[in-house]
């Protein structure tokens, strides 16, 4: 079976290239953190300390290989006939204190977030690790590499048309290669085992990268299933608008294809209908929001129906109140997240080559699983599963 995104290469039309070049000349490339006009104190307060680990943040050059969906049902493998080599992603590599891990978890965030999603501060106890996946992984003996996806956070921001699932998964593959080679700043040698861990669109990216390149040892998908709640498409498209219209991105050289949540919509998009969350986390989330491109959203429905070539163990972790992917009503197209068994039953057909597909449903949380009171439970279950398929040491 051909890889779901394939390897076909086609040239873009001269008119298209000219149009893109004109827009690029007007807005230029950009480099920005989430909400560059956000209050620095709020940004700092939203991040937990790096307890129990030594971390190094650096820029890693990546290939930019965007794809283009010509029409519904077309070959998802169509890509632009060029690769740009002036792009980079930010990688935060953390090594646990007193350990020499042979395995690394590559952590990939969802839309409108960046690598900070994996290290959320506890408003009730700023020195604690309550909501830090990074800390839980370090305690379990793992190294972590939390990235800012291409076009997000402090990674480079090419023209929005070039930021899609193909360029995202290609960049993630570049990160995996570098980690195996030992060429990421802060490494003490290459890693023998690599697990991809994603949240939401980061799970989508991890899944596609694992299927296309088949160079990882396990895939852990959080806040993601192949079905979406009835209201999700409309809620997302009506909940975002061009980022250059938002005060947090005023003055940034972002073309109109970069979007961000409208003020006051974070609770509805990423937390509802769950209530088991500190409201201060939501407030900080709103104040430090990032972006998404229309190109990232464009081929989502098509790839959602694609059977994958993943040939390593897969684990799905969701909150039962995930209002984006899990059904919340009797008549709903979302995934039945009432039990792990039901999730596996619905997801197994998409992973025919995976030696195992397992799941866990955390009772209470909504979509942003790491930010809810039940985060420690989610972390413990995830580390236990990872130790069984990709041991941290040895």
UniProtKB/TrEMBL annotation:
Keyword set includes Signal: yes
Record-level Gene Ontology MF annotations: catalytic activity
Pfam families: Abhydrolase_6
Occurrences of domain AB hydrolase-1 (ranges): 106-379
Keyword Signal attached: yes
Record keywords, A-Z: Signal
Domain of life: Bacteria
Signal peptide, first to last residue: 1-34
InterPro entries: AB_hydrolase_1, AB_hydrolase_fold
Protein name: AB hydrolase-1 domain-containing protein
